[in-house]
Hints:
alpha/beta, Rossmann fold, 15% strand, disordered N terminus
Amino acid sequence: MANDEPGGSLAVAQRSLADSSISYPLWPPLTEGDPRFSTEKVAYPLEVAYDLSGPSAATAFDADRSGSMVDWQPLLPPLAPGIDLGAGSTPLIDGSAVAVQLGLDGELYFKDESQNPTWSHKDRLNTCAVSAAALSGAPGVVVASSGNHGASAAAFCARIGMPCVVIASAEAPPAIAGFLRAYGASVIPVPTPARWPLVREIVTRLGFHPVSNLTASAHTGHPFGPEGYKTIAYECFLQLGRRVPAAVFVPCGYGELLFGVWKGFTELATLGLASHVPAMFASEPGARAPLHHALATARDVAHVAAGPTSAFSIGTTVGSYRGVIAVRRSGGAAIPVPEQQLTQARDILARHGLWQELSGSAGLGALMTPGVSPPDGPIVCILTSSGFKDQNSYPGETEELPGTWDAIAGRLRDDGIL
């Protein structure tokens, strides 16, 4: 039976990703992974299990939509009262002009997650994860983040009046700190290796609820958070006229977005609404690419060296078993994308009216990679975050020109106008 928590959720338990026959009670959220299977080398995450046997699960796809992901409450974990900031219902944008430019056949679409309340896909995760903190009775939330996750957590905490501490990476763009503080968060920039130990200390000392990773051996993340990403799959299905893409290209750091979208399409198939699950393509910075290395060596997770990358939002050095599951079970692949190709993809998108941060462009970058052959049918690239999140991606003008035609004509020629 589904639980009677707020929101009408059909969630019933937390299920192990190491062994799907093993389940735990829905509460409290197990933020350090499966206690039975996790080791010092691999921390196995959990997912939320639902009672999909009744009619209310499938009929959720026939209901009128209000324009927010909370419309999908039956298929999400319990949501805290008042949590809704309008995340979700982002546009699926026709990419046929980009397909022609790149010489691609077939349908191409862009799911633009930069149109969420804090301009990134993380708002879907935090609708669920911050709800879990509030419904657990935690006095506050703590998150380790380079930008998007922290800003989103801070916004949702502000929405329901919870304190939020963001352990930020010292390498994050300076503008991110102001973005976080605007929501009232306490922002603490530290060296990257110190972030996870400090999150644990705040959890231990203050009882705050962690909505990001709490383990060092591999990324476990929050068991409830990635459930919010399922709504991307639900929306794509409806926006494509109740069709499923042949392939989905996803910017990938720890693989939570990748897993959530895959799980959403898997549930569509389980409910008999879809005939197949799309091939999931993880798009990683080529300088690191831990998911690619894990799959190439038949491991559950991999640790890699911190090669140089400007894609700071997805530049992780340790993978997650969630990503391995999504790629393996969907018949997809993890694509290491060279830095130059990430930049090229970002510039192509911007010239077609879609300005993304470098990390947010990685899906298209992977699709452009030589040798990548997705199955025939519609292709969706998920765009994760606004270009405003990047530091100096397109520097502003620093030189004031005289206001005369002769002075500006040379600039217009340089820009291809003359």
